[in-house]
Amino acid sequence: MADILNEAFGEDGFDPISWINNACNNKATDEPLEKFLAELEMRLQLNAEDIEATLSDNSAQAMRRIPFAIQEIYRLQGDIQGMQDQVQVLAGSVQRDATDARGSVEHISQLHLVKANMENACNSLKEATELSGLFVKVEEVFAAGDLPKVAEILASMRRSLSLVGDVPEFRAGRQKLRALEDRLQTQVEGSLGEALARGADDEAMRKLCGLLLAVDRYGTIESLYVSTKMAKVHALWEEVAAAGAAAPEGAASWLATFLSRLLALLEAEARWAAAVLPGQAAALLGALCLSVFTKISKAARDRLAPVTHIAPLAGFAREVGGFGRALHELLRDVETGRRREVIALVYAPLEDKVAAYGELEAAQLAADLRAALPPAAAAAAAAAGDEAEGAVSRLATSIRPAFAALHAAVERCNALTGGSEVRALLKAVDGELAAYLAALQSAVSGLGAKHKARAAAGAAGGASAAEDGEDIANVLQLIKVGRELSAAVGRLEAALRTAVAAAVSRLQALVSGAAPAAAAAAAAAASGTPFASSSAPSGGAAGLSGAAEADPVALRLVAGRGERLAKLMKLGSGLSDPRFMVLPGSVGALDSFSATVQSTVFDVLLARVASLLASLPVLPEWRKGAEGSAHPAAPLPSFNTYPLPYVTAIGDHLMAMPQQLEVLMGDTGDDTSATAAAGGADASGGGAAEWEELAAEWLDKAVSGAAAMYADAIFKIGDLGQQGGCQLATDVEYFVNVMGALHVAPPPSLLTVQLLAGAAPEEFAELGRGALAEGAADGPALRALAGMRRIALEPVAAAPAQS
Predict the structure, then answer these.
(1) Per the structure, how many domains does the chain have?
(2) Do residues 372 and 456 share a domain?
(3) Angstrom distance (rounded) from CA 332 to CA 336
(4) Which family would the database say this protein is a member of (predicted)?
(5) What is the distance between the alpha carbons of residues 416 and 138, in angstroms, rounded to a whole number?
(6) Residue 508, C-beta contacts closer than 8 angstroms, at least 6 positions apart
(7) pLDDT band at 800, cuts 50/70/90?
(8) 499-532 pLDDT per residue, tens
């Protein structure tokens, strides 16, 4: 209990009610509650008294210690005051000593300055005394041919003139010295040029270069070195160009060979310079590389200009990238600005082709897609009937190679541009795919026109059902072509989305690690924030470091304040927007192609129907029993009429359509088995079910379209007698029965004609009103039918208003 008391009451959030309940829960089970609570209260009281007594004792002890503490504080304050007085006295003493010392130091400094000036004056007098003698002595040494001694004297004269050159007696000394240095240079540069050309005696070259360096003529060394080595580079260029003139890939192949051999030459020159002139090795190598690539960069551009195929250019891009990285490592000790200038010149010919990648890719895709298209597709579609099936087959077989070429464009883009030109890739693929789809659409249109013409001619000449079936089977294959084409476009779009996302992510990581400022500026631009001068690199490669300086893709991305990178990041962010379309032009062209296929198939399916219905409005049977006709109305006998041949022909055509569609579905067996092999039995069953559903959809669409055409033709009849109406009702009943057999609902207009076309004039209005009230008749069709029968409908016209 004591532990409970000590622990519980020391908590900040002590709750007395919870504490009492807890204590009651922990009591012995056989102990009465009243007794437990009484003991608990007593213990609490005793604890409180103990605490009070302890507090009282502690307070008394504290009060007794307070006077002693106050006395101790007073004592410490006195000690502190004494120490402060002592510190002030010491500070005053130090200040006086510092003032005295400052005066002494100033006097010593003045003495030191006087001494230094006197020494300088003495040295100047000595140099002036020696300089006059050196001008005389140097001529003697020149005459003796001791060029190292001449260089030493000229260096000494340069130092002397720097001291006494402003003295009137020596004002012409600098001009004389320059003339002497030119004289030395003339005697040295001939020997040095020959030695550099031979490249044999390194020690002699080192001495000759030392003579020129002694008189500050490094520029002469650099000029001689570069001109000598440029001759070797030119000879190498001519040799490789002549050997590769007949290469099938053109300059792209032999330029790679030239760069490989040029790298070996530059590495050898770097080793020579490091051994002979270690202090000037980096500068000499940088000057040589700058001169070499300034000259060959334009020549390489001219040689690459005729190359339009991306494959050899991609190989050249791979080789020049490796060359650039190796050269960057070779020039690691060269001044940064010059190194970046050289690397930019190395990549300049490649960048010209990268900038034109969109046009190159579009041209290559156009050629590949033209090769995939069937030759003269439109002409083949308009050829003889035996060629119709082959034309559709050629359209279908062109899809696979065409889209293989489109997918290959992604690899070409990565190979040539490293993915930096994915925007140009999308534009090229979209434009050429749209053109390919337009060509297919034109071929389908020609094929449809030819089939419709054959159907019309066949209906007029009594063509066989087998011929009609062949035409329909051929044109129905276009549905398969359209669906395959839609699936191929979908796969291509998904592949392009994946490729673009991967390229943007990879390029962003490439630049963000090497040039954070460029990446930040590009991110700001992609989000709509203008570039800030403090966050974007001012000069392309200036924002890069390390190996990224030699990466052509990284250099390309940060060029122009990172504008290309900003556009890529904006493109990448747009991929997450469901409204973003990778191939907007192709999607529109695909929609147009699909619409053309739909209309072509629909027109060919119903071409025979349209031909049979063309003469329906002027058939003489409709005027039988009409007023003023050659067959006036008379009481009709009770007998069954038979449908006319036109409608039975239409019915036969429609009844044969399911079988024709089933034949087409059977042609997909190979595709279904291939799908099953790839995806299992479920894929096979799903594909078959999909085609069955499509066949049912087209059957419904064709029969419904035929019904609409039939209704339109009926309502073009001018005069309809009662007997003709009975015949028409019989024809329509036959047609409706055909629709029922095909499980297609007839339109209300035909049901209205079936119900009322043969009604007696005195019963027509009443029957029409009742049919409208029951919803069994169509109002516009009823009014049109009444006009054909020359029956007034005033009582019937009010029926819709009442309903």
Answers:
(1) 4
(2) yes
(3) 8
(4) Belongs to the COG7 family.
(5) 63
(6) 519, 522, 565, 568, 569, 572
(7) very low
(8) 999 988 888 888 775 444 444 444 444 444 333 3
